[in-house]
Amino acid sequence: MKRFEEIPHTADWSFRAFGKDLRDLFENAAFAIFAMEGGGTPSKVTERESTRKVDVNGIDYESLLVNWLTELLWLQESNHETYHRFQIDSLSLTELRAQIFGAPITQLDKIIKAVTYHNLKIEQTMDGWEVIVVVDV
Amino acid sequence: MITKQNFERISDDVWQIPQSFRYDMRAPARLYASEDLLEDALQDDSLNQLVNTATLPGIVKYAIAMPDIHQGYGFPIGGVVATQGPDGVISPGGVGYDINCGVRLLASHVSADEVKSYIKDLATALYKNCPSGVGSEGKVALNAKQLDDVLENGAEWARKNGYARKEDLQRTEEYGRMPGADANAVSKRAKDRGRDQLGTLGAGNHFIEVDRVAEIFNAAVADALGLFPDQVVVQIHCGSRGLGHQVCTDYVNDFQRAVREFKIDLPDRELVCAPLSSPEGQQYFKAMAAAANFAFANRQVLAHLIRRSFEQALAGHVNDCDLHQIYDIAHNMAKLEEHDIDGKRIQVCVHRKGATRAFGPGSHVLPDDLRTIGQPVLIPGSMGTASYVLIGTVGSMAQTFGSTCHGAGRVMSRSRAKKQVRGEQLRDELASRGIVVRAGSMPGLAEEAPQAYKDVSRVVDVVHRAGIGRKVARLEPLAVIKG
User: Best label site of B136, B195, B394, B449, fewest CB within 10 Å?
Assistant: First the structure.
């Protein structure tokens, strides 16, 4: 199953993420964020993999998704890291707990500045789940 | 799916979708555009976004979009919505993530001809002195108390700390300090993001540009503003950096709950809002004003660094290398303003998302020396093309809550621009036209290629014809500095 695909947007970035279940969807949306920032190729990684724990809340799955991706971007900015592996340990309607794996980066050409709620709707499909996310760059 | 047939043509440059078009619209939706700019706007989702803004509770008259309209998220870029209490809402998405992204214009006493031998040195000094690029850190160290001071006092903080002259504040929207700002309404995370970023340009479509005054359309107003032909001027385009982004993120998140409590149904969750009179609405306004003050202070510190760069590059080569301020405007903001609506003076909350305030002659909020002419409006064009200085009009007060366009407006996605254009080639092509470029990122430069934008002259011609902003001068670039 494809993890994500980019969607054209006039001024910002947009992608559709896929998942066989909700945890897979959330992991692939996170993967999409960092893959797009790296222009599709891994950013320059200089050291061994690091691990961080993430715990976010929301009022529904859509707000959980926004808060999850926003938290990852915050961790990137404050720790100068990029992340390439995501393991969601628990996911309910109001809380997500995960471990993320990444490494320090020396250079970033582009960062995503914010995750929007624009047209955000997590939908079930024949093959699993998908969601379109629009981000501010 | 919106088509041209859904529009009624109100006049040559004004098109309207009636309120009856969709069941949830609370007002009509009005677009300022020539026929070909309307055709452009039909190519992306921007007009559907405009219709969505017409559903906001408390909306007054009509939702408006400017001729530089393009797809955003929630509001279209180029959107203007005014709401009135008690139910009238404030919507963080109607301001944007880059709160008080705006433009400042500084003017010199020298002509382009006098400095042409020094432009490369000047560009290098600007690039060196003004931090830019992704994650750039500023040279102004702030502790927690000082940052709170910036958030509550904006350009006034800058004046007290030696980065601004009194005259700079006079020539800034809101005199560089939004009233009602409260540092306590700004989250710790937003402050952490902003603390090291004061006096930085950022990346993306932010820039510093050295221009020459290429054409004057209104000699009397140009003269009153202090502009003359071939004059060297400088534009700064940037906003509130990571701090503003975090404030918007925080409140768009908070308001997801608020809309449920206030039972507000919206076609797009990015439009989330709360009545301005509610505690939630008030809290956002205080945080927005604080972020706006950060942006005013940011542009002020950059102006200070630009003045220093001019001294370094030009002292000894020209008689007077000083820069004075023409004006500083915001194009992502919500303001509490009084407007005449159906014969009555009413206070409304005017959201401008990629739109600029353009108050006309007689506005009492303008400083004494501008009150009879109107408010200067600064319209940056796409890189390497042209920018404009306009003046606000009584027409904009009557038609658009004192608002006009903000720039050229994008027509091409960033990924397509990067595929079509190579940054190095673009830089060399601009150099061959005599435009010096100092840019930190070649892909970033490619994204900002002129072909990714509408023709700003067409945009400005619409607002001029419609009477919501009058052309004063056209500026052409000599040097572009970007992250």
Answer: B394
